[in-house]
Amino acid sequence: MFPDNYSILVVGDPSAGMFEFCCYLGATYLRSDENLVFVEADSSPAKVRQQIRDFHADPMKHEADGSFVLLDCSSPRSDLPARNGSVAGCDISDLEGLLERVNEGIEAVGGSPVRVLFNSLTPLYMYHDPEDVAGFFTELSANVKLTGILTCTIHHKILGTEQIEPLVPLADSVMDMMVDEHYKRFVRIRHMRGANVAPKWVPFEFIRSEEPSGGTLLSWDR
Q1: What is the pLDDT at residue 71?
Q2: Residue-averaged pLDDT of the chain
Q3: What values do phi and psi take at 106, rounded to 5?
Q4: Of 62, 64, 40, which Cα lies nearest the Cα of 53?
Q5: Predicted pLDDT of residue 128
Q6: Predicted local confidence at residue 101, as pLDDT
Q7: Nearest-5° angle of CA 208, CA 115, CA 92?
């Protein structure tokens, strides 16, 4: 979906489905046998794993073979485990330490190439000024883009424009997600470095598969 050595910022409504979108990307990466570090600051590890399973990937299998590390930032824990599939904890009040944990996660999955998903940057603003979060995003992007792709989510309506907009020029691509008054979801690519894109809103939804295996699919009229 995105080029290598790239950073994507996803800006959206709290109910727009950014968590599901991250899990969809994560499942897609795992099914393609790519290394994945998933940093989760909003939901529990159990919810992340369940959503990835709904998108037809087996998170436990990939954790066991060392290609997937889940960094749990919602309930900080002890040291990063060896490549055995355990959940690692991280403290979002310590940006330097958080960067270290992500780098350790990248090393744990075998390094380059790697996909890093960060859901979401929003809780960082509870502890840090917007300038500090922008600096964190810049350094995180630089580190990840050496070896792969970074996708981060952030919530407007929870955060103000003055908090989010400093991150926009730092990202290679910005996607927007929203929910309208009829509770329909829409997505657009606001800009994408190296490509001419029309910032057009298109509908998308997560739907249950009619296949016997069940699961969830992303329907997106790109």
Answers
A1: 94
A2: 89
A3: -60, -45
A4: 62
A5: 97
A6: 93
A7: 95
Q: Tokens 């309506």 label which residue?
A: 157
Dump pLDDT digits (tens) for 141-200: 999 999 899 999 999 999 999 999 999 999 999 999 999 999 999 999 999 998 888 899
Domains of the chain: 6-176 (3.40.50.300)
With tokens 């979801």, the residue in question is 185
Over range 81-90, report the average pLDDT. 57
Given a contact cutoff of 8 angstroms between Cβ atoms, the answer to whether 36 and 117 are in contact is: yes
- Report whether 87 contacts 48 (CB < 8 A): no
| Spatial contact of 88 and 71, defined as CB atoms under 8 Å apart | yes
